[in-house]
């Protein structure tokens, strides 16, 4: 009955939600939405209501059995991989078709076709950044070099299309009805676009913001505020010596282009996106076998980014989290190994200032010569309007993304993007090989095909090995290269090749008994190649390493507890100093009650505590007041991380960056500490939940939104602890979207949870049925299931050859 009530409520909010999300001229026909026979009423069902027991699929070579457990997780049993992936495509589409297609439309730059004019800027940017361009290059590579993987991708597409062909107007997923369009045929190209989208989400840089900052404040500020190897460097992989002879990198005598200032900054990676993974050896576990844990941190959305699945052939069985639109399991385990991934945050995107010969832009300057460019005309369909024609110029670096026609507000700029993801690569093969891998050598071979985005692959095996590899295709750069906008006319700014895959940082079975990564600096200082990112993490990783080093006789439950760890290391290292610098007047007047709460805090950011909210407010106001004092001329610049600013507050409180040029006095860090506290008191006095009812969960307001955010009835608010730079990295709209712990052994044991459900249908009880467990820190068992196991079966579907 609650779903009937839900849809009655939805009917009253529907038009408002659509009106907020979509141009009014492109509203779907109301008769179609409210049609009692094929409108949104037909989506008020759950998948276990009258399930189909048999389906005929053209192209199968034999029957495929699919057992759905009590959580609607499919367990697919096929006699060949081709049948397996066709079935995976069919089953995934049956639950997540709209999500799959919508994400690809967004990545391909085609959202305007279904939501109208408001998506045009987004669509132009995705096309200009080369997501379709990179996908086409990868498709050509597969056609020429790996037809076997391409055949598996085609089988997956055939399964998706078989489901689409069955859909009547009544059975269309709800979002198609709201947006008034129908699904297209799936292709391997779409899977490649989806993988390009993941690369774009997890890659980023701030070249122009760094350029502005250097031009405004000079190199000394850059060196102090953004050290490339901080004092507390705790790398993913540390070596006293490296077992290879490095490639030679020539340091050229170059001058950066006279780039001026930029009011628009290139969009970078979404702040906070990251992950944790680790593996502990059998020497540190109660069972004597390794345990692996992984919890990727990405946007919290409904439908969930992840889709749990088991895939079985006579040769292997694998289980874990898949990505709707891609083949196989992305983070998971089989009978012999387990693996998990985190973002390595390496700088693999660089920007070049292009000088064209004339307004035609048909030639550009390179090493004193005029080189022909490639001009492509791109047609973007817009729902309810005429097509938009965009002209994109391609150089040998890559596409000219930003120019006088796009984003920099008419300025005569031409910035070309060079990105490792544009080139030929075979990430899909990496996961297919991982799914069937049995040992460390298989793991290394599988990930060798992985180019972008750069990832830290954690590994554990039943044989007892644990390992970590920082994997990707990394440019050979001279020190500092790629930090600022570079001169595209000078070949000295070119990458000097790529770091050999064999030289990527990796370790196996370290003496400490564990490997771990949490988006921190990838390598120790003696690594012979230049490594840069300004978004490495320096709190989660140290907390994880500290806890793992202290633990012995480890159990899976203790690994779950570590994934849920809410200890705020930033607060523990910073708050005592901040409290010591407070003016004594605060202890006697306004804010004294907040001081007491902070003094008593144990630094665990639990959902029901007030102190984490107070600390976050204080720190944010401190940052805002300080950064607002910098005379940045209204230009976008980079700001130091929590880690670097906290270190400077304690170690160099009289640094020049703390002195406001707008006053005659000399400010130090103490001034901004007190100013931030005063602003926090003001905020809390006005905050509706202040006083005894203030809690971290209410202040943080973690919300799991639908992919179309203004469709509020399709989202869920959750009350959870944790936060940025905390192992349990639950923020307001991103966090651990998949928590997994795998205990290897004769019969591997898997445990996982994610904030959503298997179904993409908001009318299904399986749309968000796992959110409560995720919110409460619980896990479900995801052990490998034999086809003969009849326990907790929701229903069974057999896919037969047609």
UniProtKB/TrEMBL annotation:
Q: What would be an example GO MF term here?
A: hydrolase activity, acting on carbon-nitrogen (but not peptide) bonds, in linear amides
Q: Which residues act catalytically here?
A: 275
Tell me which InterPro entries the record gives. Answer: Ntn_hydrolases_N, Pen/GL7ACA/AHL_acylase, Penicillin_amidase_A-knob, Penicillin_amidase_dom1, Penicillin_amidase_N_B-knob, S45
The alphabetized list of GO BP terms reads: antibiotic biosynthetic process
| Note describing how the cofactor binds | Binds 1 Ca(2+) ion per dimer.
Q: Where are the transmembrane segments?
A: none
The residues listed in the UniProt record as binding Ca(2+), with positions renumbered to this chain, are 347, 350
What is its cofactor? Answer: Ca(2+)
What is the top-level taxon of the source organism? Bacteria
Q: Give any Pfam family that matches.
A: Penicil_amidase
For this UniProt record, the keywords arranged alphabetically read as follows: Calcium, Hydrolase, Metal-binding, Zymogen
Q: Which family does it belong to?
A: Belongs to the peptidase S45 family.
Q: Which PANTHER family match?
A: ACYL-HOMOSERINE LACTONE ACYLASE QUIP, PEPTIDASE S45 PENICILLIN AMIDASE
Can you say what this protein is called? Penicillin amidase
What lineage does the source organism belong to? Bacteria, Pseudomonadati, Bacteroidota, Cytophagia, Cytophagales
């Amino acid at each position: 009955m609650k779903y009937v009530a839900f849809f009655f409520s939805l009917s009253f909010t529907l038009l408002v939600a659509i009106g907020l999300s979509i141009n009014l001229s492109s509203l779907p026909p109301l008769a179609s939405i409210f049609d009692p026979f094929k409108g949104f009423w037909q989506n008020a069902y759950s998948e276990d209501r009258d399930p189909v027991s048999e389906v005929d699929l053209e192209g199968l070579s034999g029957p495929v059995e699919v057992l759905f457990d009590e959580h609607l997780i499919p367990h697919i049993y096929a006699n060949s991989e081709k049948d397996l992936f066709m079935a995976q495509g069919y089953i995934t589409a049956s639950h997540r078709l709209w999500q799959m297609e919508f994400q690809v439309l967004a990545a391909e730059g085609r959202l305007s076709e279904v939501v109208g004019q408001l998506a045009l800027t987004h669509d132009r940017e995705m096309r200009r950044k080369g997501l379709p361009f990179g996908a086409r290059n990868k498709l050509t590579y597969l056609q020429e070099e790996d037809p076997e993987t391409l055949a598996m991708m085609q089988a997956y597409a055939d399964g998706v299309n078989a489901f689409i062909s069955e859909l009547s107007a009544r059975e269309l997923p709800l979002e198609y009805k709201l947006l008034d369009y129908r699904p297209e045929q799936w292709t391997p190209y779409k899977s490649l676009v989806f993988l390009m989208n993941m690369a774009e989400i997890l890659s980023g840089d701030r070249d122009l913001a760094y350029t502005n900052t250097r031009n405004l404040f000079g190199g000394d500020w850059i060196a102090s505020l953004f050290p490339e190897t901080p004092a507390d460097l705790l790398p993913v992989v540390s070596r006293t010596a490296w077992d290879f002879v490095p490639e030679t990198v020539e340091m050229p005598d170059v001058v950066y282009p006279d780039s001026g200032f930029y009011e628009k900054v290139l969009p970078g990676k979404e702040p906070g996106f990251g992950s944790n993974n680790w593996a502990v050896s059998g020497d540190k576990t109660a069972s004597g076998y390794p345990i692996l844990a992984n919890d990727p941190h990405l946007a919290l959305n409904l439908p969930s980014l992840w889709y749990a699945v088991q895939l079985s052939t006579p040769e292997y069985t694998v289980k874990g989290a898949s990505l709707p639109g891609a083949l196989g399991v992305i983070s998971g385990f089989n009978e012999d190994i387990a693996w998990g991934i985190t973002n390595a945050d390496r700088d693999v995107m660089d920007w070049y200032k292009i000088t064209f010969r004339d307004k035609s832009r048909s030639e550009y300057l390179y090493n004193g010569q005029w080189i022909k460019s490639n001009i492509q005309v791109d047609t973007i369909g817009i729902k309810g309007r005429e097509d938009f024609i965009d002209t994109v110029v391609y150089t040998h670096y890559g596409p000219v993304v930003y120019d006088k026609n796009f984003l920099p507000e008419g300025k005569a700029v031409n910035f070309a993007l060079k990105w490792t993801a544009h080139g030929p690569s075979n990430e899909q093969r990496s996961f297919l090989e991982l799914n069937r891998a049995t040992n460390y050598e298989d793991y290394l071979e599988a990930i060798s095909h992985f180019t972008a985005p750069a990832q830290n692959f954690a590994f554990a095996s039943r044989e007892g090995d644990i390992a970590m590899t920082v994997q990707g295709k990394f440019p050979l750069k001279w020190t500092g290269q790629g930090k600022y906008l570079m001169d595209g006319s000078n070949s000295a700014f070119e990458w000097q090749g790529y770091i050999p895959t064999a030289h990527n940082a990796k370790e196996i079975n370290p003496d400490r008994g564990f490997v771990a990564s949490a988006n921190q600096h990838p390598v120790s200082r003696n690594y012979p190649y230049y490594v840069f990112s300004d978004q490495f993490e320096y709190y989660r990783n140290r907390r994880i390493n500290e806890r793992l080093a202290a633990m012995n006789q480890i159990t899976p439950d203790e690994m779950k507890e570590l994934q849920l760890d809410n200890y705020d290391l930033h607060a523990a290292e910073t708050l005592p100093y901040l409290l010591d610098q407070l003016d004594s007047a605060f202890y006697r007047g306004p804010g004294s009650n907040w001081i007491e709460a902070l003094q008593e805090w144990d630094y665990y950011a639990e959902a029901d505590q007030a102190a984490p909210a107070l600390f976050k407010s204080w720190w944010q106001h401190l940052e805002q007041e300080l950064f607002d004092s910098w005379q940045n001329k209204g230009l976008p610049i980079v700001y130091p991380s929590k880690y670097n600013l906290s270190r400077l507050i304690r170690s160099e409180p009289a640094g020049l960056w703390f002195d406001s040029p707008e006053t005659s006095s000399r400010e130090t860090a103490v001034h901004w500490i007190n100013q931030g506290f005063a602003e926090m008191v003001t905020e809390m006095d006005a905050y509706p939940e202040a006083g005894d009812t203030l809690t971290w969960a209410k202040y943080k307001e973690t919300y799991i939104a639908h992919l179309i955010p203004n469709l509020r009835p399709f989202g869920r608010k959750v009350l959870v602890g944790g936060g940025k730079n905390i192992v349990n990295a639950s923020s307001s709209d991103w966090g651990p979207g998949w928590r997994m712990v795998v205990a290897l052994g004769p019969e591997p044991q898997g445990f996982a949870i994610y904030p959503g459900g298997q179904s993409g249908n908001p009318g299904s009880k399986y749309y968000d049925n796992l959110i409560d467990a995720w919110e409460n820190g619980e896990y479900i068992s995801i052990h490998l299931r034999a086809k003969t196991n009849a326990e907790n079966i929701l229903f069974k579907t057999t896919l037969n050859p047609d």
